[in-house]
Amino acid sequence: MLSRRNMIKTMGLGAGTLMTTQLQGQTPPKASQFSFCLNTSTISGQKPGLKAYLDIAAKAGYDGVELWIRDIQEYLEAGNTVSGLKKYIQDSGLKFENAIGFAPWMVDDETQRNAGFLQMREEMEMLAALGCKRVAAPAAGVKANLDLFAAGKRYKALLDLGRSTGVMPQLEFWGAFPFFHHLGQVLMVAAVANDPDARILPDVYHLFRGNSGFEGLKMLDGNLIEVFHMNDFVADIPREEQQDKDRVYPGDGAAPMQEILTTLKNMGGNKVLSLELFNPNYWKEDPLQVAKTGLAKMKAAVDSV
After folding, report:
1. Among 223, 138, 141, which residue's Cα sits nearest to residue 189?
2. Strand partners of residue 67
3. Residue 295 has pLDDT above 50, yes or no
4. The pTM is what?
5. Which of 87, 167, 213, 300 gives 124 a disulfide partner, CB atoms 3.0 to 4.6 angstroms apart?
6. How far, in Å, are 49, 70, 78, 228 from residue 173 at the CA level?
7. Does the pLDDT value for residue 15 go beyond 50?
8. How crowded is residue 147: how many other Cβ atoms within 10 Å of its Cβ?
9. Contact 266/225 with Cβ under 8 angstroms?
C-alpha cells in the first residue's frame, strides 16, 4: 500500500514527466513575418492623386497600400470605374491591405448608428470589389463617454457585417480622442465582442499619446493584430500636447522602436507595418523621396530585431 504522501509524490512526478514530454513535443511559435505598406496620408499633403499614390508606393518598393475611402470615392465620382481601379491596383503589384474610413457605427444615437452601419456596408462592398479585405473601424462620431459593453456588442454586429461582405473591420483607437484612446478600452471592446475575427489596429503614436504605453502589447495573441501603424513621436513636446502633425519617421523619435518590433515579432502572426504620417514638413518634399525614406527607416528598424 502506498502512503498518501508517496502517492501524491508519484502522481506529481508522472504529471511533471507528461508535461515535460508535451512541451518538448510542441513546435515553438513562429516569429511574425513583416510586410511593408504605405498609408497614403504620409504623402497626402502633396496631393498627387489616387493613381499617383499607387505609382509612388510601387516605385518606392512597398508591398502594399492603405488607401483612404474618401480618396477612392472622389476618384470614382470623377467618372472612373471600380473595375478600372481594381486593375490598376493589380497591375501596380501592390496589395490593397486596408482602407481608412470614418463611418459612425459605434455611436449611441440609434438613428445615427444605423446610418453608420449602412455607410459601412456600402463602403465594405466597394472595398470588396476592389480586392481589399480590411477596413479601419474607429469610434468616429462618438461624443460622450462610451459604454464599452455596448460598444463590444456593436463591434460584434460590425464583424457579422464584415463576414457578409468579405471586408473585416479592424478596431482602431486614437490617442488624443477622449472617449476611445487607450489600449485597455479597445481590448475590452474586442473581448466583449467575443468573436474569433476580432482584430485591433494599434499605432505607435496613439499608444504613446493615449498613455497606453507599450507593455500591454506583450499580453496579446499574435492573431489579434494584422495591421500596425508605424511612426514615431518626438521627445521635446509634452505627450498631452502632441498632435498628428508631430509624427516623424520610425526611428527618428523617442519611441522604444526595438522593443515594440521585438514584441510584434515574438507574438507571431503576419504583420503589415504601415507607415502613417501627417507631417507638414514631409509634405513639402518630393513624395517619392518621402515614401522611400519611410520604407528605408521601417526596414532598418525591423532589421535591428
Report:
1. 138
2. 99
3. yes
4. 0.90
5. 167
6. 27, 20, 32, 12
7. no
8. 11
9. no
